[in-house]
Write a structure and sequence with these properties.
Layout: H1 2-12, H2 16-39, E1 48-52, H3 58-65, E2 69-74, H4 77-83, E3 90-93, E4 108-114, H5 123-133, E5 134-145, H6 150-155, H7 160-163, H8 173-182, E6 185-193, H9 199-208, E7 213-220
Parallel strand pairs: 1-2, 1-4, 2-3, 4-5
Antiparallel strand pairs: 5-7, 6-7
Helix pairs in contact: 2-3
């Protein structure tokens, strides 16, 4: 596990410039994730939320401010140390491939996984673990690159889904929905969102399923 962590730190934080850019980008994006996954999903204060792949803790910091009981996991020691400076969450240095048995069954009201599922060895096993730690009727939020994104056809091998060597799986909206439903969830929201286009074009791309990232909300049944 330590070797994996060291390699991830090396890949993502190889220079001051790359650290700073990724830091700024994640802070901006997680301010978008918070209202979409907490406020729009009507997650109540005092609810328990765990962010898998919590990185620098920006999302958890916003959850703290909303008075949620926060937890976070990440494989990167660098990111965990940064996160401890801004969030009150209970943080764990952990490879998600090792499972979620550090938590009790039916413990959480919300599990978030922002750009994580494409990195794990077995997405199916991950969803099984998430199902186990969620309360009945509770929700999970997944984001992941959309393999049908128009950016993929424009950028080719430079598209983010292809260019990141740590990606093991890529999904369409249909394939992700199928996998989630097979693992005991009802999909309550499925859309494509975000970058890198102007808002008017994003609306068009969302309707056609061609925007850059899949946004899925699943409820445990």
């Amino acid at each position: 596990m330590k070797d994996d962590i060291s390699q991830l730190d090396k890949n993502y934080f190889g220079s001051v410039e790359s650290k700073y850019k990724r830091y700024k980008d994640m802070k901006k994006m997680q301010r978008i994730y918070f209202p979409k996954s907490v406020l729009k999903e009507k997650i109540k204060p005092k609810s328990k939320v765990v962010d898998i792949g919590c990185a620098f803790g920006f999302f958890l910091k916003l959850c703290d401010e909303y008075n949620l009981e926060t937890y976070g996991l990440d494989i990167s020691d660098y990111e965990i140390r940064k996160a401890k400076k801004i969030t009150k969450a209970k943080l764990y240095l952990r490879d998600i491939n090792d499972g979620l048995d550090i938590f009790s069954d039916e413990y959480f009201d919300l599990v978030t996984m922002f750009d994580i599922i494409e990195h794990v060895k077995s997405p199916c096993d991950l969803l099984t673990e998430v199902h186990q730690v969620l309360k009945r009727g509770a929700k999970m939020v997944i984001t992941t690159p959309n393999v049908n994104a128009i950016a993929k056809f424009l950028k080719g091998k430079q598209w983010v889904g292809f260019s990141d060597p740590s990606h093991l799986y890529l999904f369409t909206t249909d394939s992700l929905k199928f996998l989630v439903e097979k693992n005991g969830f009802l999909v309550t929201k499925l859309e494509t969102i975000f970058r890198p286009f102007p808002k008017f074009l994003q609306k068009v791309l969302n309707r056609t399923g061609k925007d850059g990232e899949i946004w899925l909300v699943g409820r445990k049944i």
